[in-house]
Amino acid sequence: MILIVAVSVFLATAAGAFGLYWILESRQESLQQRFKEVIGKADAPGEGVAESTGKWIDMIRKRFTAKTAVETDLVAMLSGKELVGGRLLLNQAGYRSPGAYHAYLLVRWALPPLVVTLSLVGGKIAGVENRSIFLAILIAGIVGFLLPDFALRRRIHKRQEEITDALPDGLDLLVVCVEAGLGLNAAFVKITEEFRLSSPALSEEFDIVNREMVAGKPRQEALRALSERTGVEDVKSLVAMLIQTEKLGTSLAQSLRVHSDSLRLRRRQRAEEAAAKTTIKLVFPLVFLMFPALFIVILGPGALQIIKILIPMGAK
Fold first, then answer.
1. Segments forming the whole domain that contains residue 173
2. Fewest 10 Å CB contacts: which of 39, 54, 81, 218?
3. Is 163 a member of any domain?
4. Per-residue confidence in pLDDT tens, the chain, 316 aa
C-alpha cells in the first residue's frame, strides 16, 4: 500500500511538473512567428498594395531571419537587473539556451520525488525495517532537493576559477593588440580566437561582449553585462577600469598595462597563499590516516613482545 501511494505521488508530481513546463513553453511564442503573424494581418486587408511594399516586407523578413540566430544565441544580452535568481546563476554557469531555466526547474522539482521513490522501492526490496526506510527517504529527499543547486554552484565556481586564472594572460594579449593599433572590439575578437582552446569560458564571454556591441548595444552596458554575467571580481574591476577610461579619455593601453600587472601580481599572490595553506591541509590526513599506521608499524611489534612476556609472568 505504501509503495502504491509513493508511486502515485511521484507520477502526480512528475505530471504536474511536465504540465507546468509545457504551459510555460507554449506561452513563449517566437519572435519570428509573431512577426509573420503581424505581416499576415497587415497583408490581409490590403490586397491592392503596391509591389514596392511587398519587396520592402520581403527585405525586412530576410533581415529578421538573418538576425534570428544571433538573437537566439545572445540570451546573455539581458542586463543585470533582468538576470535575477536562477537565470543569473545559469548564465554564470554558462547555460544560456532558452530552455535552460525550465529544464533546471524541472530537474529541481522532479528529482526529490524520484530519489524518494527509489529509496522506498529499494528499501522494500532489500527488506529493510520501516524506521530505516523512513530515515533513508528523509535523507534522499533532502539530498535530491539540494543536489541540483549544489551542482549548479559548483559549476559556477569552476567556471569563475577558469576565468580568473586566464584573465591576466587575456589582458596581456589585449595590451599587445591595443598598442599595435587595434580597436577594443578587434582586440576582443583576437582574444576570442586565441583563447578558444586554452580557456573556452573566457573566449565565450569576450565573444558575447563583442557580438553585443556589434548588435548595437552601448559599450558600457555590454561591459556591465559582462561583469554581472561572470560574477568574477577581477572582471568587475576590469570593467570599472574600462568604463572609467572611456569616460575620462585617458590612455587605454597604459591603463590596461597597469591593470594587467596588478592582476598578474594578484594571481601570483593567490598561488603563494594556496601553497602556504597546503601545510595546514596536510595536518588532518597526517593525524587521522598516516600517524595511526606509523604507530601500528613502529609500536606494534614491541607491544606484541611485551604482551608475550607479561602474560606468562602473570599466569605464574
1. 158-272
2. 81
3. yes
4. 555 555 565 666 666 666 665 555 555 545 455 555 555 544 444 444 444 445 544 554 554 444 444 434 434 344 344 446 677 888 888 888 878 888 888 888 888 888 888 888 887 787 777 778 788 888 888 888 888 888 989 999 999 888 888 888 888 888 888 888 888 888 888 888 888 888 888 888 888 888 888 888 888 888 888 888 888 888 888 888 888 888 888 788 888 888 888 888 888 888 888 888 888 888 888 888 888 888 888 888 888 888 887 777 666 5
State the burial class of residue 129 (Cβ atoms within 10 Å of its Cβ: 0-12, 13-18, 19+). exposed
| 312's grid cell | 606468562
Residue closest to 105 by CA, chosen among 119, 89, 81: 89
What domain count does the chain have?
Answer: 1
**290 part of a folded domain:** no
Q: What are phi and psi of 96, to 5 degrees?
A: -120, 10
Say if 208 falls within a structural domain: yes
